[in-house]
Amino acid sequence: MLGAPACFIFLLCQLTGPAASGIPKKLVGAIGGSVIFPLNLSVNLVDSIIWVFNSTTLVTIQPKTAGKKALVIVTQKRNLERVNFPHEGYSLKLSRLKKNDSGIYRVEIHSSTLQDPLTQEYELHVYEYLSKPKVVIGLQENKNGTCVTNLTCSMEHGEEDVTYSWKSLDQTTNESHRGSILPISWRWEKSDMTFICMASNPISSNSSNPIFAQNLCEEIIEEKKELDTHQKTLPFPPIPEEMPEYDTISTFNGTIPEENPANTIYSTVHIAPKVTEPYSLPMLSDTPTASIYNNVM
User: What Gene Ontology terms describe where this protein resides (cellular component) (predicted)?
Assistant: First the structure.
């Protein structure tokens, strides 16, 4: 070998998978947690290993030799307690993750036996643990006794890569629905239903407080009940009372003839209680008229 002697290390692993095809290996982590960037490579002689975050060098490693321990150089002081190499290997463990740790990481393996360094890339996404999602109730409509509305599920913060789904529960069936918006069509005569929104991201999940259909459509239910009550107690118009009125009777000699109940017919006149215009009876002439009493033969 030409040039100055190099530190030799023999690794019997093979570089395979995403690094061989140039596709970054995807990793996920949680805020406050840790993640391991696995290093799998096959090089007979390794001079140095360099870990890079975006375009900034994170760690430089000079492997140990027979007479020396491995030398690890952390370029940024704030990362001294966050960087670790488990089991005396060269896979990088990054702890106390923060949101801004998301990005592209790259490891470079330099060797005097290689014209160009071997590289492997990683794409890290750091997520928040999800809090309880909130549910917003849309405008409500009453369509022939059916409550029609929408429920919208969302997160106050940490919405990156969040997926939503719904569970609709009643006494007989359990249904599921994908998406943040749940359309609802519920008749108040039916059994009560419960709606629950579930939010998930790659590291956690959480669910909303249950929403009850009866509470959701309470105003519409009250309107329906009031309408039904009104229909049941709708008053009928009053029936006018009949007021009998008897005609006066004139006789020839001014005396009332003896009445025979069995052979006498009475004439009764029915008059409505309300008279819009005054009514005048025709004047009687002085000529005597026949009595309306008729004897029945």
Answer: membrane
Amino acid residing at 176:
S
Q: Is 276 helix (H, G, I), strand (E, B) or coil?
A: coil
- Which residue type, as a one-letter code, is found at position 193? M
Does the global pTM surpass 0.85? no
> How many angstroms separate the CA atoms of 81 and 52, rounded?
17
Q: Which two tokens stand for residue 25?
A: 């290996």
| Model pLDDT for residues 108-134, shown as the tens digit of each residue | 999 888 888 888 999 999 999 999 999
Nearest to 46 by CA among 89, 8, 88, 91: 8
Size of the chain in residues: 297
Rounded CA-CA distance 123/258 in Å is: 125
How does strand 243-246 pair with strand 268-271? antiparallel
Q: How far apart are the C-alpha atoms of 45 and 9, rounded to whole Å?
A: 5
> How far is it, in rounded angstroms, from Cα 27 to Cα 126?
9
Question: Which domains, from first to last, does the chain contain?
Answer: 18-127 (2.60.40.10), 134-218 (2.60.40.10)
For residues 118 and 109, is the Cβ–Cβ distance under 8 A?
yes
Determine the 3-state secondary structure of 31 from DSSP.
coil
